[in-house]
Design a protein that fits this description.
With 364 residues, the chain is α/β, with parallel strands linked by helices. It is built from 11 helices and 11 strands.
Length: 364
């Protein structure tokens, strides 16, 4: 099969894990490929993905070969494949807009974004770079709350004729107007807000669905998360997290037997713990009533490396976007969006979403 040429906006921890993973699995056989949902997806393997363009705003990354930029501060994810070869892709200066929260200036520079003092590209510049690179799929890895910047790059994708995977909780795929624009252009879009391979949201959803299927009345629940990467530091600015909270909450509400009132469900980012680095710890509590109206509760603690957990899904989303391009499909990819994302245009329970994604891969 031909290469899948991708462009990345935001060379942070998630991009680092994805690039490392592409190289890591290139050295594996199908039987050694632990941690993948699919080795072969529509005829494409992990090593068929090639990053041909990348954008960031940090002075330590802009102008660097991608293989060096993915390990530059403030990135702090696990390095599981340090021998990433040079690929010739140099990180270009991106458009800042609302991509950097002002409160980060109060923190250690090694843990925060340090914007490069360089001219920012105009839309025409980004469109030109996407076209010249041959990119087919654009991945949005901007910080949570980057509403203006996300829409800027979505516009660029539309004009450059590139598919979009929106990994963050800015509602583009789930906005009917944006979805229609991608449909008219014949370009696939997957979104919004990537759901980790085995993270807090998917675990919380599965347990909520289990309560429903086993006849347990869910009365109240919370999900509290802590982490030490730039995602959690960025989200200390609570004005940036309203869409994140909505996305995560709706992902759980969508599979509950009955919607919980706002006072009985709390899901969202909780706090920044610097020494956790890219490790995310989630605390989930669920209270309900069993047979005979007898009360019960469940508490769970989940600890995961946040960015590889995301990359385990992104590597499949990329290949789904490419086979959609191969098949001439445009607009929101319903099955992939439901399976890969927290806030798709249409929610399905996870069993249904799994059947939809498998049917999509088979071309049904």
């Amino acid at each position: 099969m031909s290469k899948i040429k991708i462009a990345i906006v935001g060379v942070g921890n998630c991009a680092s894990a994805l690039v490392q993973g592409i190289c890591y699995y290139a050295k594996k056989t199908p039987h050694q490929a632990v941690g993948l949902m699919h080795w072969d997806l529509g005829g494409y393997r992990p090593q068929d993905i090639e990053v041909v363009a990348a954008f960031d705003i940090d002075a330590r990354k802009v102008g660097q070969d991608l293989r060096r930029a993915i390990f530059a501060p403030p990135n702090c994810t696990t390095i599981f494949f340090p021998e990433v070869p040079a690929g010739g892709t140099v990180v270009a200066m991106g458009k800042i807009l609302d991509g950097v929260s002002e409160h980060m200036q109060a923190y250690d520079p090694q843990r925060t974004f340090q914007p490069a003092d360089l001219p920012q590209p105009q839309q025409a510049d980004v469109i030109r770079m996407l076209r010249e690179s041959g990119a087919q799929v654009l991945l949005n890895y901007l910080p949570v709350g980057s509403e203006q910047a996300s829409r800027f790059y979505a516009e660029c994708a539309l004009e450059a004729g590139v598919a979009l995977i929106n990994n963050i909780p800015v509602f583009i795929a789930s906005d009917p107007q944006w979805a229609e624009r991608f449909t008219r252009k014949g370009l696939p879009i997957i979104g919004d807000d990537i759901k980790s391979q085995l993270g807090a949201t998917i675990t919380h959803r599965v347990l909520t669905d289990l309560f429903k299927k086993r006849g347990v009345a869910l009365e109240r629940t919370y999900q509290l998360n802590t982490g030490g990467n730039t995602d959690f530091l960025n989200m200390l600015n609570r004005s940036r997290v309203s869409s994140k909270k909505e996305s995560k909450t709706e992902a759980v509400q969508a599979v509950a037997a009955h919607r919980l009132s706002a006072e009985n469900i709390h899901i969202g980012p909780s706090d920044y713990v610097p020494w956790q680095k890219d490790n995310k710890v989630a605390f989930i509590r669920m209270e309900g009533r069993l047979f005979g109206d007898v009360p019960m509760n469940l508490e769970l603690r989940l600890s995961v490396e946040d960015s590889p957990n995301s990359a385990g899904v992104a590597i499949d989303a990329i290949r789904c976007a490419k086979i959609a391009l191969d098949r001439g499909l445009g607009g929101v990819l319903e099955g992939p969006s439901a399976y890969f994302c927290k806030h798709p245009p249409r929610q399905f329970d996870d069993d249904q979403a799994y059947r939809l994604i498998e049917a999509f891969i088979r071309g049904e």
